[in-house]
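Bug #77: duplicate submission created two jobs. Keeping one. Sequence:
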Amino acid sequence: MWQLRKVPSSQEACAARTATCHSCNMKGHYIYVCRSCKVRKISIMATVEPDSKIAIVGSGLIGQFWAMIFAGGGFKVTIFDIYPEQISKALENIKLTLSKYEKQGCLRGSQSAAEQAALVTGCSDLEKCLQGASYVQECVPESVDLKKKVFEQMDPFITEEMVVATSSSCICVSQFVGNLAHKHRTLVAHPVNPPYFIPLVEIVPGPWTLPDVTAKCRALLEQVGQSPVTLSREVAGFALNRIQYSIINECWNMYQDGLLSAEDIDRVMTDGLGPRYAFLGPLETMHLNADGIVDYCNRYAQGAYNVCKTFKPPPVMYDVPTAEKMLKEIEKTIPVAKVPERRTWRDERLAALAALKRNLKEKTE
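Kept job's structure:
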């Protein structure tokens, strides 16, 4: 509903504040103009103060990761759960995990693990949890009905200074906050698992989300070391899952057609596309694989189009019979019983990759 425009007059510029437009990266004074009523609203894009309180609603694994990320940024964090025993387990797990990360050399922030753990407290009173919070991150299971219930319970305690985000991976806020008084303060901030080592967060505003809310959310996530991307509007699957499902679709089709084994399909990614995409996106890859992206299109667009014509049309149903056939192959190296062990291995490798990328970035700055 809101459109970002640069302030045209010096008078309005005095009332606005210098900011960077996340659409075009141009610095300047900006206001927001409603596309429907054309009413102008002076906007202040501000970061969240370091002594601000962060509220986490839901004490599961994602909620715990969020708590550790914000504590690493020096923020005081309160985790809410309706079950006090779950809060106790979450706080203990956070303490142990931060200590482990410290020993492994991958702890975020400048404070010790003990100091960061001390910043995280628990609460089984929702009003008390949200009281005084400048940012709220909801982390309940992926269910429209459950999220609708939780946001309805939060609504009376949301203030005009709060940003209220859902960790939803596919559900847009418009599906469950449409009747709330403070729906304009809500949006999606979808992390990628495990978010402590994979910094991407998808910010997806609803049709009524105020631009200030989106900007404040992005600024905070950058402040604590995440790497946010901002979608201009809601779309099914957001960005990451739309790309991910496109990849899985073709992998599924190739396996069903007997073109490659499950092991070799994964190898195409781990030893082919994966190492490249850890540092370059697909569009930059096109740019570097020719004399710029336009030259790439001149050279290779027709060939790519011809290949794409051979694809099976989506959607692709990930059917159980095919999955059971895959499982027989995958279990030769990763039995289902050892999946938790393999997840730990995954997190350790992702931590090492994150450290490598961080060190390389520091050397180039």
